[in-house]
């Protein structure tokens, strides 16, 4: 790493938080790898069974203001935990004691009972620190890669993050850099060998008979303009309007199948983690979500109606470091929730493109092939992921539909600001669909299955069209895990 870092521009190695310059450390074990004037804020920690996959930030005070020093050494250390009976090779964990008005971001680990040198780390002026309770929204703030430990079986319920006090977004990628990132890291989505319902462009749905319904005028639906220009704008999901398939059976069948050959990805770029990273949410539109399947021990159930709905929006999110332009992690959205995996934990194609498996009928995103059950034990809704012959490289045909931080900002398509549902509420009877299959189950298994089924979130079982991407909680906040 160069000893001279700039703090302006994407991929330039550092970002200025308002007098506190931070950079990412590559060598997590050698203090000598620090650029000139930088100090770590604590040590890094993870399981010793995995390859190092996290990040560690170091900071430098660039204010040159003696009346407002941003980084100071701790005044002492307290031993938090030590190896039993001072076992050789164990770790001693130390909590730094910060000066008044400063915060210790992380702990320090040593291999002996000797206190670490006070000059090993720095505490941070508390103005630059945000304390977040476990489960809180961390997206505006910066995790430093340090760790906290507590002794005497006490628990940790809050964590320290850095704040981008200056609101500096100069490290965010420009439009040209966004294109480069998308082409380099665009996921390749593989579909199940038996999949029947594929993605399409939004315009395919509109141009092939998609209809706009108005409450109270259900007998007189209106064709949707190819650009969505006649979709209602503003308001909320008040059930006054909804979209649906064409009425004609042949046209309906065509739209259900989708158009994989012309399908594209719709990309939302936004700053996250205090603008140290860019999230690229890659949204895919499926005109139709097929009926669900279930597994009850050794029984497999193919439902006829449960789970089906018109209009299916799915996404994968790439988290890219603004300091070095590297992919850090990938979020795989799976109905109501999802999972983040580090970049070194996933499968790739062509070297840099994450592989995603779209589940059969439900189109949830999975990092690996297999039967993924939503439920308890061997009882649940199946999300089968397998590598068929058909796939979609999301970097071949894409459009950036929103990036508010750009100046001028991206002009959003009209359909993105349609706030209502992309499909009707289907009123088929759950009980009828269930009874045809559960009547063959032994009593104990039937009770277990129904208990699991009744606890499933509505997103899993579908039967009503979703709202569009912009109205998901993750659009402006964290992904749900």
Automatic annotation (TrEMBL):
Stretches for region Disordered: 461-481
Domain of life: Eukaryota
Official protein name in the record: Vacuolar protein sorting-associated protein 62
Originating organism: Lithospermum erythrorhizon (Purple gromwell)
């Amino acid at each position: 790493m160069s000893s001279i870092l700039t703090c302006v521009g994407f991929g330039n190695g550092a970002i200025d938080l308002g007098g506190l310059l931070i950079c990412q450390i590559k060598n997590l074990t050698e203090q000598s790898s620090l650029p000139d004037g930088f100090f770590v804020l604590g040590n890094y920690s993870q399981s010793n069974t995995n390859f190092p996959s996290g990040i560690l930030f170091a900071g430098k005070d660039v204010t040159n203001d003696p009346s407002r020093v941003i980084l100071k050494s701790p005044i002492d250390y307290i031993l938090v935990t030590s190896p039993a009976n001072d076992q050789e090779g164990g770790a001693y964990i130390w909590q730094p004691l910060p000066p008044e008005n400063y915060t210790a971001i992380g702990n320090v680990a040593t291999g002996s009972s000797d206190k670490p040198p006070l000059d090993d780390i720095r505490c941070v002026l508390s103005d630059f620190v945000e304390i977040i309770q476990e489960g809180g929204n961390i997206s505006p703030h910066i995790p430093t890669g340090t760790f906290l430990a507590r002794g005497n079986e006490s628990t940790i319920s809050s964590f320290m993050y850095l704040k981008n006090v200056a609101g500096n977004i100069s490290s965010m990628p420009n439009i040209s850099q966004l294109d480069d990132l998308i082409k380099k890291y665009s996921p390749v989505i593989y579909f199940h060998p038996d999949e029947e319902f594929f993605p399409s462009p939004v315009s395919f749905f509109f141009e092939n008979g998609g209809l706009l319904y108005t409450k109270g005028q259900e007998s007189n639906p209106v064709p949707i303009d190819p650009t969505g220009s006649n979709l209602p704008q503003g308001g909320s999901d008040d059930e006054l309007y909804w979209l649906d398939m064409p009425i004609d059976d042949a046209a309906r069948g065509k739209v259900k199948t989708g158009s994989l050959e012309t399908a594209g990805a719709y990309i939302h770029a936004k700053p996250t983690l205090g603008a140290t990273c860019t999230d690229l949410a890659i949204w895919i539109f499926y005109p139709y979500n097929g009926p669900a399947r279930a597994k009850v021990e050794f029984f497999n159930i193919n439902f006829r109606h449960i789970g089906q709905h018109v209009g299916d929006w799915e996404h994968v999110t790439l988290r890219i470091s603004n300091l070095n332009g590297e992919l850090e992690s990938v979020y795989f959205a799976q109905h109501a929730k999802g999972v983040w995996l580090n970049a070194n934990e996933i499968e790739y194609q062509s070297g840099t493109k994450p592989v995603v498996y779209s589940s059969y009928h439900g189109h949830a995103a999975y990092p690996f092939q297999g039967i993924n059950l939503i439920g308890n034990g061997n009882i649940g809704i199946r999300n089968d992921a397998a590598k068929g012959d058909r796939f979609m490289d999301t970097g071949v045909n894409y459009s950036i539909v929103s990036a508010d931080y750009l100046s001028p900002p991206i002009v959003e398509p009209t359909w993105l600001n349609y706030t209502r549902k992309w499909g009707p509420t289907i009123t088929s009877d759950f009980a009828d669909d269930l009874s045809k299959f559960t009547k063959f189950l032994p009593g104990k298994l039937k009770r277990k299955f129904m208990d699991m089924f009744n606890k499933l979130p509505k997103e899993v079982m579908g039967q009503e069209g979703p709202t569009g991407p912009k109205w998901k909680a993750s659009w402006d906040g964290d992904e749900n895990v």
